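Class prep. Sample record?

___
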Amino acid sequence: MLRRMLATVTLAAVALAAAAQDYPTKPIKLIVPFPPAGGTDILSRVVAQKVGDTSKWNIIVDNRPGAGGNIGVDAAAKSPADGYTLVMGQTSNLAINPTLFKSLPYDPVKDLVPVVLVGSSPIAIAVRKESPYRTLADLVNAGNAKPGTITMASPGNGTVAHLSGVRLMKVTGATFEHIPYKGASGAVPDLLGGNVDFYMASVPSVQAQVASGKLRLLATTGAKRSPIFPNVPTVAESFPGFQAVTWFGILAPAGTPRPIVNRLNAEINKVLHAPDVRKTIEQDGGEVMGGSPEQFAALIRSEIGTWSAVVRESGAKVD
């Protein structure tokens, strides 16, 4: 019986290895859980195109927006675990939404298997050019001296930007009044018009206004300075250990054969370090990551713990 069991296991392993060797035999679908032309979509298309160029695989980007990214991630989680459906997840729908939403149709740890961490991008703390706050210290001092009177705009309740602001308040002791918007399209004009004091923004959403001199950045929230804003300090330079970024990574449905996950990981890691891909990601203020599936899995587990505490502290909820 033991010999039969070992033979069965061996045959199964050989079959999986053979399947991975032949993989893929048809187009791979990469679900993007946000609308076209956004940051997640652009990053996904850059990676899909480059993998296609180098490996001759056919990767089709499939936008499935809605419910803060939950619809697209859920669609991937419920797809066949054969390596032909992937999803570009990120901090919000993998680490924040499990606590932010009253009920989530998927479990980011149990229903998905990490393939590779693609990149990360910090949040920028932006003020208009006329702002009296010239440094992060100026802003924090004002938030301590006049609690609740300095207004902090964000692209929405429960977003990485909003919760990064919550973490900033906790670390600095300052108190700001949160003004949520429905994306940058409403927040940036109000910031330029002086209706809010500062904006916790994704780098691409304010990049043009910073370049034109209409906005200034007081700090960014990454572990190191942004490659496109090397003169802008990080929050960590004033408050050591502070880091709050949006990260992006590719996952597959749970149960996807490990040889296929490894094959995908190797191909994507290869293109992430191509000079043109790195340049494209860095031009939007991002940082190329890469690494093993295990490293990405560890990050997800760690970030769920970190952001769940911040969500509870913020009081933000989405039904």
